[in-house]
Amino acid sequence: MALKKYFKKNVLEAGTDEAGRGCLAGPVVAAAVILSEDFEHPLLNDSKQLTEKQRELLRPFIEEHALAYGVAFVSEEKIDEINILQASILGMHESIKKLKTQPEHIIVDGNKFKPLGDIPYKTVVKGDAKYMSIAAASVLAKTYRDDFMQKIDEELPNYFWKKNKGYPTKQHRDAIREFGVTKYHRKTFKLLPEQLKLEL
């Protein structure tokens, strides 16, 4: 199914999405993108449908050809403080605020959002597989987050973040059992299935 250009025609519409909600470690990263009417790229799709290589090819293209884009990081401390849903919405708000042009309409991947000022918005379940601007935002959010996880992997290689990107893989959980919890872990998340009380 081809991605649609817009939800609303003839307005400056930003698509927004986040990456890293289901991870045990690292920030949640959100992006917002406003695309021009003639934006086209044969690879553009929901970032989960793309290979890492395809996402890396798309990112500079999106950044160069988008009318505007913004990326925002919300730290694991903030996630623990306000919960992952609120942190995801906060990240999306922050990424929209970073756009050099304020959008007149926002389309959001998922079904939860809070108003940002008085800009009208529409939530779209699986929006990253339906609309180009959300798909582009999903690519930026995912690549920026992956870069961050690769960077902290160099600092703490025992957790294999380069490979698992902070998601709850068996290897990641085994590393938490063996080496404990790091400053990058989300302390309010169930880090281990058998976790009743973690010695922090």
From TrEMBL:
Its function?
Answer: Endonuclease that specifically degrades the RNA of RNA-DNA hybrids.
What is catalysed by this protein? Answer: Endonucleolytic cleavage to 5'-phosphomonoester
PROSITE patterns hit by this protein: RNASE_H_2
Please identify the protein, giving its name as recorded. Ribonuclease HII
The UniProt entry, under CDD domains, shows: RNase_HII_bacteria_HII_like
Superkingdom as given in the UniProt entry: Bacteria
Which cofactors, by name? Mg(2+); Mn(2+)
Please give the GO cellular component terms listed in this UniProt entry: cytoplasm; ribonuclease H2 complex
As for family, the record states: Belongs to the RNase HII family.
One of this protein's GO BP terms?
mismatch repair
Single GO MF descriptor:
RNA-DNA hybrid ribonuclease activity
What does the UniProt keyword field contain? Cytoplasm, Endonuclease, Hydrolase, Manganese, Metal-binding, Nuclease
- Source organism of this protein record: Lutibacter oricola
InterPro entries per UniProt? RNase_HII (IPR022898), RNase_HII/HIII (IPR001352), RNase_HII/HIII_dom (IPR024567), RNaseH-like_sf (IPR012337), RNaseH_sf (IPR036397)
One Pfam family it belongs to: RNase_HII
Give the UniProt subcellular location, in the record's own words.
Cytoplasm
Binding locations of a divalent metal cation: 17-18, 109
Enzyme nomenclature, EC number: 3.1.26.4
| UniProt KW Acyltransferase keyword | no
All copies of the RNase H type-2 domain together span 11-200
Q: What does the UniProt cofactor note say?
A: Manganese or magnesium. Binds 1 divalent metal ion per monomer in the absence of substrate. May bind a second metal ion after substrate binding.
Record keyword Ligase present = no
